[in-house]
Each structure stands twice: as C-alpha cells, then as structure tokens.
Amino acid sequence: MMDENRKHRIYGLARRILHHVTLFIAMSIICVPGLWVVLNSFRPTVDIMAKPPVWVPRGLNLDNYRAMFGGAGQGGVPVLQYFTNSLIISVTSTVIALLIGMAGGYAFARYRFRGKSALFIGLLLTRAVPGVALSLPLFIVMARTGFIDTHIGLILVYVAMNVPFTIWLIDGFFRQVPPDLAEAAEIDGCTRWQAFWKVEFPVAKAGVASAGIFAFLTSWNEYALASQLTRSTFSKTMPVGLRDFTSEFTINWGGMSTLAVLMIIPALILTFLVQKHLISGLTFGGVKG
User: Rounded to 5 degrees, what are φ and ψ at 282?
Assistant: First the structure.
C-alpha cells in the first residue's frame, strides 16, 4: 500500500514537472522574438548585424532612443506625432466600435426580429474577408469622399473592421445574463436603462473589456490599410512610421526595434488595466438581495 501511494506521488510530481517544463518551453518560444526586439533597441548596430548572431549583449545603451527623439543628431522621425495619431485613431475607433457593439450585441441577445439570424451570419461573414483585399475599394471610396490622409478615414475603416467581432463577442456574454435580473430590477423601481447599466452591464463587462482590447489592438497594430490611406506626418500611424527607418540601400534595425518597443508599451498598459475584468466571473450581481 505504501509503495502504491509512493508511486502515485512520484507520478503526480512527474506530471507537474513535465507540465511546467512544457509551459516554459512554449512561453520561451513565444517570448523570444519580443525579447530580441527589445534587446535590439538597446544594442549598437554592430551587434544587431553581427553574423553569427550575438545572443548575449556585449553592451547596452540608449543611443537608439536618443536618436529617435532627436538627441543624437538623427532626429527626423516624428515619433510623438505618430504616437498621437495612433492614439487618437485607436481610442476613438475602439470607443465607437464598443458603443455600436454593445447596442448590437444586446439587441441580438435580447430581442427577436425578422432576419435576425441572416443579419448575424452576414456580420460574421464580413470577418472572413481579408483586410488587404479591401484596400483598393477602400482607397477609391476614401479618395472620392476626401477622407484620404485623414484621421476620420482610418477611424471609419477600423470601426467597420471591429464592429462585427464586438457584436458577436458581446452578444455571447449578454446571452449568459439571465433576463430575469433586469425584470427584477424593473420591479424594484429601475427604468429599463438603469436596469441595463446597474444589473446587466456589470455582469457582462468582461465581454466588453475583451472586445475593447481586441478592437484597440487591431487598430493600434494595423499596417496594410493604414499604409494605403495615409500620406503625411499628420495622419500616419506608428506601424506606418516604421517605414521611415528604411531607405534604398539600408535599414535602421535599431530604430525600427525602438519604435516597435514604444508600440508595445500602450498595449501592455491597457491589458494590465483591464485584466481584472477579463478574469471576473459572470455571476457578479446575479443574486437579488
């Protein structure tokens, strides 16, 4: 009996060790490219271009960051303007997509109307169309409406890209909220609007947070359409700004890595701020006191 228990403990310990080792290997594979970009932003060009690659940095410095902000005589990439453009476009398109997604998701989850299923499937099918395939039609439409090289043009495009997914995701969360909760709140004296914001929305806010992160990251990282619809410094986003580090014969890998690091920081901050909503349970507020 003692031997059997010991075997089970050894077997369980071996499984846990294998599980953690597998996770460590998987996370290492996922994180190595990002770590390499971060290291390149602090390394001199000699180390970046070295063959074979220099895995252990021989020296780290802030020259690439000083050069990006004009501190080393290589200023010329308006990173602050690109950052401002990306922030305005991404935040505005995310807010609009979430408002439309909440309204559409709630309507699909709570109400019955003619053509509901067909409309819902049609929205999802729009996600099957690659964004690159729409670049030429979008360019023609934006050129004729005067929205080329403007914030509004990109905002409209990103809203159209994000709304179908936000509606689908938020619809799934509202379907898990019992309608009886809102009815009970209305019986207690709440208006329909108050019942939504005070009872249903807190339960489904994890889905709204998830949709918001997706919409923001999609707009923040998108390159193909932004490169077609922007021209000047006053409308280019940060992904498009990466091209400023390329020339006919050379590529400034250190500068590109530095700008890539700056692009990653806001996404990490946003994810950190809303992570508690992503892990929150759907039973919050589900018991009527």
Answer: -90, 5
